[in-house]
Structure formats: C-alpha cells, structure tokens
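Hey, quick one: can you model this chain's 3D structure?
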Amino acid sequence: MTLTAPPPGTRVASRGIRARSFASVGAWLLGVLLVVGLSLTAGPAQAFAPAPSAATPTPETPEASDVLSGVAAFTLSPVGRGTVRPGEGLAASVTLQNGTDAATPALSVTLSLGTTALPDRTALSTWLDGQTTGVAVSPVGATTLPAVESGGEQTTGIVVAAEDPALTARAPGVYPLVASYEGPDGVVQSTSVMIVPNDGAPAVGIGVVVPITAGPIAEALLSAPELAVLTAPDGSLTRQLDAVEGTDAILAVDPAIVAAIRVLGTAAPAAATAWLERLDALANSRFALQFGDADVLTQLEAGASGPLAPTSFQYAMRPADFRPANGTPSAAPVATATPDATPIPTPTPTEPVDPTVPVYPTTAELVEVESARAGVFWPAGGTASPSAVAALGAITADDHASLTLLASTSTTNGAAGGTVAAHANAAGADALVYDAAVSSRLRAASLTDDSSLRGASLTAATAYLAFAVAQTGGSPVLVTVDRAEDRSTVALRTAIASALQAPGFSPLALGGLIGAAPIDVTVTDAAGDPARAAEASALFDDEAAIERFATILDDPTLLTGPERAEVLQLLGVAWLPDPVAWNTAVASHRASTAGTLDSVGILPPSDVNLFSADAPLPIWVRNDLPYPVTVVLYATPDDLRLTVQEETTVAAGAQSNTRVQVPVQTRVGSGDVTVDLQLRSRTLESIGAAQTVAVSVRAEWEGIGITVLAILVGGFLILGVVRTVLRVRSRRRSAADAPGKDAP
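Sure thing. Here's the predicted structure for all 744 residues.
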C-alpha cells in the first residue's frame, strides 16, 4: 500500500467571460468589435488543418497547445452558439492558429450558408466531420484575416445583418455554415451550423450531470495539504462548485473527497471544511459516485460480485481530532414561540461528555454525500454490457432499485446516432440514458479556455439538441459534462448553461428525470478492456492476501481499510486517459503491498549447538509494521532426538525485533536435527517465509561431564582426608621425640 501522496499539480486559474446579444444593426457592429477583441461568448465550431479542396475534420475543439505543432488550424465560430431567431443577424468569428515555421499571409475568408436545413443528426455529423460534398451553400459574408506570425493566432469577425435576404424567412432548422479561404494547396474549410429554433414547440425537460471529482489519485485519501490546494479560492474543487452554483446541474459527487475532509476532524484545513459546507448547502440534486469514482464495469469484469465500498477509515483518524470540545453539554436554547404563539419544545439536556474519549464517525457517516440519491452507477464512458447492466440493476439501495447511467451509443436505439429519451428500462434494469453526441461536445467545450475556440463544441451540441427536441416525443433528455481535470470556472459553467438554456428545453432535476415514463431500450454488447480487468483482478487478489495477513493485528482494519480505499482509487475513471501512468501506479501499489506482506517474519537463525538436555532455542521475530502484532511460532523438528515446544505465542512490538525462547528437550543419542519454523496468525494464516535452524544435539556429554566431575571431586576429598591424617600423625611423632617433653 502507498502511505504518502505527491503534491497535486498546478491548477489553471479561471478566466472571465462576457455575453452579448444583438438586436439591431448597430449592436451587430459592436459584435464585430467583440469578435475581433476575442471576447465572444461562443467559441468555434470545428477546427481543421489545411487540405486541398476539402475540409479536414478534427473530432473536438483543439487547444492552442494541440494545434500549434506544424499545422495552421482554421476555426469557424458562430456567436451565441449559432442560434439565430427571426429578426436577428448572424455573427461569427474565424480564427487561424499558425503552428508552422513560416508566417501566413493575409487571407480572404468567405462565409457561406446552406439554403436547405440538414435533415437529421446523421447528416449533421457528416457535415461537422468536414464532408461537404452534395451540400448546397451560398456566400453570405466575407472578411480579411490578417497575416499570422509563426506560433501566433489571429481572430476576426463576420457579420450578416438581420435584413440580409439570406436570413429572412428562414424556417426552423439546422442549416450548414462554412468558412473557407484559398490556401497554397487548395481550399481550406471549417464547418459549423446556424440554428433557427422553433420557439413555438412545447419545451422538453433536460438534465445535465456534472461530476465533482479530484482527478487520478493513488493514495487512499487526499492529504490535508492536497485538500488545502484543491479547495483554495483558485483550486480545482472550488472552481467546480463555482461553475455549478446557481445552476440546475445534477451533481455526481465523489465520496472520497468528503471522506478525506471528515477523517481529519478538527485538523481539517479551514478551506476544505468551508468547501464541504458549501457543497452541502447547494440546492442541486445529486448522487454519489463510487468511492474514488471507481469504474464499476472494471470491478465486474475483474470478478467482483458487485461494486465495492470502503470498509474502514479508522487508520486515518487521530484521537486528538475527535475529542469533544469540553466535558459538559452545550446550554439548552431558550424556548421561543412561533408566530401563532405555539411554544417550541425545549430540548432535553444531554449527558456530560468525557473530553478525554474521542467520538469517531462511522464509515457510512464519513462517505455520506448530503441529500444524495443512493444506488446510482455511472460506468466509465457510459458503456456497459447487458450482463453488467443486469447485475447493477439487481442492486437495491434505500428500498429502491439502483439506477445506471448509459451513453445513448450503448443502446440499439442510439447506436446509429439517434436521440434516446433519458429514462429507460434496459431488460428490467432502471437506467438513465444520456446523449453521447451532445455530451462529448459539452465536455470538449468545458476543456477549452479560449472563448474564440470554445464555440465549436457549443454550437455542435446545440445543433444536436435541436434535433432531439422533436425526436424524443416530449420525453426528457439527459446530457453530461463528463469527467475532466483542471477545468476553468468559465469554461465549465458555459458548457452547463449551453445545455440548460438550449432553445426548446427547460431544466430538470434528477427526480424529474426519474419521474418520467421509461422507454424500453436494448443494451448493445460492449467490448471490455481485458488488460485493465486483469490488473484489477490482481489488485483484488492482493487485497485478499492483505485481509489474511491482517489477522495478526488486534484491529485488522488498520491494514484492510487503506488497502480497499487505495484499490478503489486506482480503479478511478480519471486514470483512463493515461494508461501508462495508471500501469505505473498499479505496479507501485502492488510492490508496496508485497512489502507489507513481507513486513513480519522470522529473521534467518544461526546454527545451534545443544549440549544440555533441557535448554531454550533462541529465535528472533521481525515486525516492520507501525502496529504491534500477535503471531504464533510453530517449530517442528525432523528427528526424534529433539523435542520442541510446537506452538509459542509471540507479541511483537511495532517496528522492532522480538527475541523468542522456544523450549527444547533432548533425548538419548546425539546427532544433527533440523527444526522447521513458521509464523502463523491466530487464524492459522501463514505469515512470512518459513525458516529452518540446524541444531547439533550432544545430549550424552552432560552425563559424562557429571561423572568425571564427581570422580574428580571424590578423589580430591579422599586425598584431602589422607593428607590431613598424615599431617596429624607427623605432628604427634615430632612431639614425642622432643627432649624434656613427656609423652602424651
């Protein structure tokens, strides 16, 4: 497991945006100045590199860093997302980003408008892809694009007055629009559309799902320093709330963010606490993503029976951060009365609280997203196989069926590009289907900071929605502004507003979408990612190994809790755009997990010479964990010459080596005995690698030594007695032979 997190990357600050509307010729002239000044509300429609006599499409609006690489990107961008009502003029900008090594000359640009509306979404996709063959257009305006230095960018505007015959008497519809110039290799074109809305049609409900996420994370939880950066005034999480506040967006909140703040208790950064309070106070309807925004499809493909959830965060909470502020309950408020003089009951005082005892929140309380609907699943990319949808649909939460978000392209109804109503029944599973074409353009717009480029995606999204008004039969439509990192407030908010304020639509909350009558859809087979599923399966196997290993702790969740959280973070959808970084993170996590599994074991023992019949065998147990552990040492000799105590319980301190004395007893005979050593948990799980110790048994040496010692001691005693007797006799003879002395 990974215990530390690198500091997050630098976030891009948001930039301001101004909106303008034009109702007269003078106002449209002001619009030209705004276009030239790069302060248009809408960005471009599509960007194309030069190609002979045809437009070369780019799937999404490019950022400057993407296009300034050897090509000159030409972009057409209608003002106001291409929407032109009767009596209004058409304003558009054209932008050239010069990524070549040479300056481009001044260019004469022509703006042409189709005489007939595009018939359907398929024709719209074909046109936006740059395939202009067979579409009749007529010039309606022109401008001169100034010369552009190498690495530079120029934008200029084109205005078609409301009185121009090309705009008068236009029926509602989506009309092809193209800007072109004559390049050295042929005609260079950029396609977009002009939309004449049908304001007389009944409004259709629309919901916009916006994720609140923190990007790819390899650690179990965001750290306090990371939270401080993300929730700072210019932080990524703050920008996300700035973008959705005051809108009707449906929030998809990653519960890992709120859990990371709550586990810090009183030590949480002030900015993070304020951010969480602000999130809770928003009126937006919402649902909770999987912890870490883990991809539910990957989990199912890897063999999980259902979406996994975090198990414990006790390892991340410090007692000092969860102790009550004082030992007495807060004073009861004074009873007041309502306007009708009805007294308000006075709360009953609570019992005094011991300030020395921390009060920890539960796991459910830590991950709870305020006012969120439970049981909503949003697979990565919205794709899911029929079996996965069925598995998710069988889950219930808070006494109601789960809800799965699917892309329209995951259904047979929308696979060909058609519109699919939001609320659907997919083989018995409740689902919300979002429009894939609109959602992809909204996401691209949310990632484009340059307003002169953003309108490409916004205009395309509005055009697709124009067809959806008529194709849903009045049923609500759902779109998303899918996950992405470091979006500016302006870009994200503009993308949200473009959908919610699209002509012919009225905003709906999550409940309004679910309340609509469901339509029947068929889910198409989706090809999964076998490599990703295999990596996820390996992570699950490692987690199972950690779960077995953790039985050496009094509280196994100290290891299993962070392991589960890290696995879910690694399965986060935010990792999908960068598979190389994801593979590196997974490899690092698995190496860390292997290190954890090897953190407790027996130190390689030295050979032992045993000369006595009863002596302890010294063994050392290593514990590199920051927690004390309890293990059982099993010792098994391979010869009957030695009797060893089979089980020895060992209480090993944190990050220390513990000496263990294993009682042994020799029997008759000498020889070499091998003793096998193995640590196990109290649930008999093997811990660490097995070891062996070679014991040389010389049990008879003790008896021989005692006999020899007894003989020596006895001999010394006899010699002492003889010497004493001889010495006494010698003294007596000497006394008898002395003159003048009487014999005794």
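One thing worth noting: The radius of gyration is 40 Å.
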